[in-house]
Amino acid sequence: MIRFDIRERDGCARAGILAIDGTRVPFPAVIDPATVFPSLVSRGGTNVPLSAPPAFVSTYLATGEGPPVIIHPALANPAESGDVVMAANWHTTLANPRQYVRWLKDLKGKTPADTLWYAPAAALPSSVHILCYSGFDLFDSTAVDLKSAQGLFCMPEGEFPADDARESGMCSCEGCRNGDLGLHNRLALIHEVALARYFIGQASLRELVEARCRMNANHVAIMRHLDADYAWSEVYAPVARTGVMRANAGESMQRAEVRRFAERLLSRYRPPRATVAVLLPCSAKKPYSLSQSHRRFRQAIAGRAHELVITSPLGLVPRELECVYPAMHYDVPVTGFWDAEECAYISGIVARYFALHRYERVIAHLEGGALRVAEMAAAACGIALEYSCRERPAGDAALAHLDRALAGERRLRDDRLHGMLSCQFGCDVETRGILQRGHFPELFYSRDNRQLFSIDTGTGLLRPTFEGWDLLPQGYRVTIADFVPEGDVLVPGVLDADPSIRDGDEVLVVGPRVIATGRAAMSSQEMKSSRRGVAVRVRKIKKLAG
Ligand SMILES: [Zn+2]
């Protein structure tokens, strides 16, 4: 009897606890298929090539009595919620990234989300990262045992002739100490799966994939093909994380959370009514406002212009969105040099922003690559820039120049809340009369002494109270059946969920008997295609009268 509990999600990847006849092991895991799936040994017809045509598959593939339930691209979904499913021959697709991604999307699309995925004979220490990233949870040691038979030494960096590797001293595991290649290879796989599990728990598997994939062109290609389908990967991407987002690779610009920030900036965000915009450089310290340079910029600007930060890889960060994930979380290598691809991508975002939102004056208070990006954007959308400096923007001369350039301009109302609400919930809320208190970035918003919102300083998300939700007329609702939840809301209780809900979003639970505030533990898509698990982690619950 196999049971499992998905506890963590990181994009497509998951981590949790697997119970086999009462023995509990964390997954992703390396399992012994003979113990976990005893019937699999004697079942025929479970191993049909992934590329086999439908007629062949329906004749020869025996999906059989699980576990595991056999899934195949040419087959309608035979799996149910709670099943362990198996995609045989999955390792063969690693050599064909385009096909890999096509089949993965097909299989993920038709299989319930709360299934555990087994890739038999597929995992090597060098491929675990991308298999976990693709949503596989269970592996076995068949592939590493084959490498042992071939005299190959497995490492996360690849497979090497064992004779060379043994003498190099690059591993000191029990297998290597005893000259046992087979044991080394099995341990290397177990260690790499444990590492992937740790990164999933930290919600930073993407960073591990960006690092590991460099040794194999096919792995890079799979990551890029997945990124290229933004609409598909965005649904899996959590709305926020608490840790650092390391944007150290060229591909970081393409990851779903980075693209989502730009998409929401251009589709949801509503800027304040301002006649002047000042373009500023980013700072290493986040949120920007806490950095020395930004304190000086803010002092010089003194509220007389809308502040917009030009930065890689996010593009453009209006001052009000500096806490919104990943603006407060990203870390990039700072070289002062912006490559052509970066410039083209970021100037594209800036140009689209200025095409949507017209200012009478746009002042570039920038230098280097950021200045070049601003000039490219201005040329693309036909606006004229004014310059308050061309070097050392935080220097006294530049700041004095900026102050003079803003002489006579009117002060804007500081309305961080309005901008954040528009970006997070997609609505235009009347914020007049709402007071801000607290010590930045730990801010609270209230009206008539009733708290409406607070900023979660870990994720940068706004947390609405019940009174706060009253100001948000629609969206981000999870409708539940006629019951009073005890603790969290579980999937079976969910009747409907707003399609825009992603893992980590603040939501309002609405039922005939209660309303509750909380955080979505999965996307609305997953709530609808699962039968088990926590849908919403409830913060506060209110029983309705009558
Ligand atoms: Zn070793």
What does this structure look like?
The structure is a single chain. The chain is of the alpha/beta class and 546 residues long. Helices cover 34% and strands 23% of the residues. It has a six-stranded mixed sheet. A five-stranded mixed sheet has the order 14-13-12-16-17. Strands 18-19-20-21 form a four-stranded antiparallel sheet. Strand 1 (2-10) and strand 2 (13-20) form a beta hairpin. Helix 4 crosses helix 11 (217-228) and helix 15 packs across helix 16 (368-381). The radius of gyration is 26 Å and the shape is globular. It binds zinc ion.
Summarize the structure.
The protein has 546 residues and is α/β, with parallel strands linked by helices.
Features of the shown structure:
alpha/beta; 546 residues; six-stranded mixed sheet; single chain; binds zinc ion; five-stranded mixed sheet
Sequence-ordered SSE layout with sheet pairings:
Layout: E1 2-10, E2 13-20, E3 23-27, E4 29-30, H1 33-36, H2 54-60, E5 69-70, E6 84-86, H3 90-93, H4 97-110, E7 116-118, H5 128-133, E8 138-139, H6 142-149, E9 152-155, E10 158-161, H7 162-168, H8 174-177, H9 181-201, H10 205-212, H11 217-228, H12 230-236, E11 245-246, H13 256-267, E12 276-281, H14 292-301, E13 306-311, E14 315-318, E15 330-331, H15 340-356, E16 361-365, H16 368-381, E17 385-389, H17 396-405, H18 416-425, E18 435-439, E19 442-447, E20 450-455, E21 462-464, H19 466-470, E22 477-480, E23 489-490, E24 494-497, E25 506-510, E26 514-520, H20 524-528, E27 534-543
Parallel strand pairs: 4-8, 5-6, 6-7, 11-15, 12-13, 12-16, 16-17, 22-25
Antiparallel strand pairs: 1-2, 2-3, 9-10, 13-14, 18-19, 19-20, 20-21, 22-24, 23-27, 25-26, 26-27
Helix pairs in contact: 4-11, 6-9, 9-10, 14-17, 15-16
